[in-house]
Amino acid sequence: MSVTYPPESSIGLTLDDVAHVLKAYKPSAWLDSKNIDIATHCFVLASKIKEYRSHFESILVEFPSSSNFKDPDLLKCTGMLKAEDIDTSYYVPTESLLECSNAIAKGNSVQEKCSSLKQQLSDISSYGAVNGFSFDYGGIAAMVSFDLPSNIAWHTWHINISEKDSNLDYGQFGFLIPYNHDPNYR
């Protein structure tokens, strides 16, 4: 199973390689999975994760926005992941989320920009397939406005930790990936 980030081509790094190297550190991992919206691919990932579960403190598997959680096989796979104590999240489409947040920030009518996304997230949370939403922090205004169930964790990136909103309850957040302009930061 190759570890890469499209459109970059694979350099031959595999999930096996990563798991063996990280075993000594037992880190948390966010798997930004691109093709597990196909149930057979999800099952392959689920069996690989089961093999290496003990190498990690926690694991988040992010499902792409194209995922159809009405598919019984995909639901079975998310159930397998959750049975292994793996967190699952749905990737909230960035463009739609940012459009909604921008409409809120400008005081514009949010009905057309936000209503379909809000309904989509509400529906997804009701299927029980995922226990989180992952999104660009630039869309936080929209996420807050949607009044989604509090048992759904939020996983986010591009958060500037020094400027985080003190009015938010960060208890609902899971993984936070800070934004850093320094190309040498490690």
Structure notes:
The protein is an alpha/beta fold and 186 residues long. It folds into two domains: 1-91, no CATH class; 93-186, no CATH class. The chain is built from six helices and six strands. The protein has a six-stranded parallel β-sheet. α3 links the parallel β2 and β3 (87-91). The chain is globular and about 50 Å long. The relative contact order is 0.12.
> Mean pLDDT score, rounded?
88
Count of beta strands:
6
The helicity comes to 25-40%
Strand neighbour order, sheet with most strands: 1-2-3-4-5-6
Shape: globular
Structural class: alpha/beta
Q: Number of helix segments?
A: 6
* Share of β-strand residues: 15-25%
Counted up, domains total: 2
Strand/helix succession: HEHEHEHHEHEE
Instruction: Please describe the biggest sheet, giving its number of strands, its sense, and whether it closes into a barrel.
Output: 6 strands, parallel
Task: Give the CA-CA distance, first to last residue.
Answer: 25 Å
Cα-based radius of gyration, to the nearest Å: 17 Å
Give the uncertain stretches in residue-range form: none
